[in-house]
Specification:
Distance between the termini: 14 Å
Number of strands: 10
Shape: globular
Organism: Vibrio tritonius
Strand order of the largest sheet: 1-2-3-6-7-8-9-10
Number of domains: 1
Protein name: Lipase
Pfam family, one: Lipase_3
CATH class: Alpha Beta
Helix content: 25-40%
Oligomer: single chain
CATH superfamily: Alpha/Beta hydrolase fold, catalytic domain
Radius of gyration: 17 Å
Length: about 260
């Protein structure tokens, strides 16, 4: 598994942070003027951005985390449902599955009605895949969790199409079957900053499993695949004082210098 470089980490972290504001000047980050497609949910809120440049063979899909009361309520649906609607042979978090299968409002004149968020993404990616571009998926919080499932789905449809998956502050999304069947273990980097409690959610050990390589940013270092019990112990120690401060994207970006020593 190739190490994640600092410039890669910084780029994906910045894009995840900039995905939250409604206005994002993508050309300032090397993408073509027409190199962005925005995917909305059923309420007209931005869920994903697809970014690319003709000068680069990498398409970046950026997925936002929970950003409304409805999204947070969906995270409470912690039972698992079959992901066969996505063509996948396992069960995943029911709330996150709903967020991916919800209807997507059209964004452009050429868009058609009645497509889900996932279907809209596939429509936008199809011509870019036909051009020979490969896909990197990155996301924050629930966006990172959904990104893993979307990447696995795309990889099964188009073998070797996924370049890498980079998630920030990601909760788990699937059970042991998901962990066992996930095809991108060697291309997935799951980044956790200090004592981010969200990375331990849902609070159901052995019912939910993570995938990929854990990179834990803590005490001026990058630790790889640290056992959850160690991280959890330190998390509980600081929980009463700073419960969610480590979950902010700004915290991840400030820690980009750790990658110089990694």
């Amino acid at each position: 598994m190739k190490p994640l470089k600092r410039y890669q980490y910084e780029r994906y972290a910045v894009l995840c942070q900039l995905a939250y504001p409604r206005i994002f000047r993508h050309t300032q980050y090397g993408f073509d003027p027409k190199g962005q497609r925005i995917i909305y949910n059923q309420y007209g809120k931005i869920v994903m951005r697809v970014l690319w440049s003709q000068a680069d063979n990498e398409v970046i899909v950026v997925i936002k985390g929970s950003h409304s009361i409805r999204d947070w309520l969906a995270t409470l649906a912690m039972h698992q449902r079959s992901a066969r609607a996505l063509g996948l042979p396992y069960k995943i978090h029911a709330g996150f599955l709903h967020l991916m299968l919800q209807e997507s409002r059209p964004s452009y004149n050429s868009d058609t009605l009645g497509l889900s968020v996932i279907e809209r993404l596939q429509v936008y990616l199809a011509p870019l895949i036909a051009e020979g571009k490969r896909i990197t998926i990155t996301g924050h919080s629930s966006g990172g969790a959904m990104g893993c499932v979307i990447a696995d789905m795309m990889e099964r449809q188009h073998p070797h199409i996924i370049k890498r998956v980079v998630t920030f502050g990601q909760p788990a999304i699937g059970g042991w079957s998901f962990h066992r069947h996930y095809q991108l273990q060697q291309k997935t980097y799951r980044i956790c900053c200090d004592l981010d409690i969200v990375t331990f959610l849902p609070p159901m050990p052995f019912y939910y499993w993570h995938v990929g390589k854990l990179l834990w940013l803590h005490n001026q270092r990058v630790y790889e695949n640290i056992p959850p019990v160690i991280r959890l112990g330190r998390t509980l120690l600081s929980w009463a004082i700073r419960p969610f401060s480590y979950h902010l994207m700004s915290r991840y970006i400030r820690n980009k210098d750790f990658f110089d020593q990694h």
